[in-house]
Amino acid sequence: MQKTLQPAGPARPSAAEANEAIRLLVETRVDGEWPAQAYEFLLEEWAAASRKDISADW
Q1: Cβ proximity of 39 and 25 under 8 Å
Q2: SS (H, E, C) the chain
Q3: What confidence tens digit (pLDDT) does each residue in 2-53 have?
Q4: Are 46 and 15 in contact (CB under 8 A)?
Q5: Rounded-to-integer distance, Cα 2 and Cα 34, Å
Q6: CA dihedral 34, 20, 38, 3 (to 10 degrees)
């Protein structure tokens, strides 16, 4: 069973942290199974953080 990284509190991870979590998930796949649910969760975290980062630049 795959473990997914959960935010420690109400704050979401930064885009870089979410990206690193995605890389870790991809690199540590077990038994050739693709953990689609965990991957989708991390993509949503990354997308939310990316939007936040872009908004901060404006």
Answers
A1: yes
A2: CCCCCCCCCCCCCCHHHHHHHHHHHHHCCCCCCCCHHHHHHHHHHHHHHHHHHHHHHC
A3: 565 655 555 677 888 989 999 998 888 878 788 889 999 999 999 998 886 5
A4: yes
A5: 10
A6: 90
- Chain-centre distance of CA 48, in angstroms? 10
**Identity (one letter) of the amino acid at 31?**
D
Rounded Cα distance between 3 and 54, Å, is 29
Please tell me the distance from the alpha carbon of residue 35 to that of residue 51, in angstroms, as a whole number: 24
User: In angstroms, what CA-CA distances link 37 with 11, 25, 52, 54?
Assistant: 21, 11, 23, 26
**Would the pTM count as exceeding 0.70?**
no
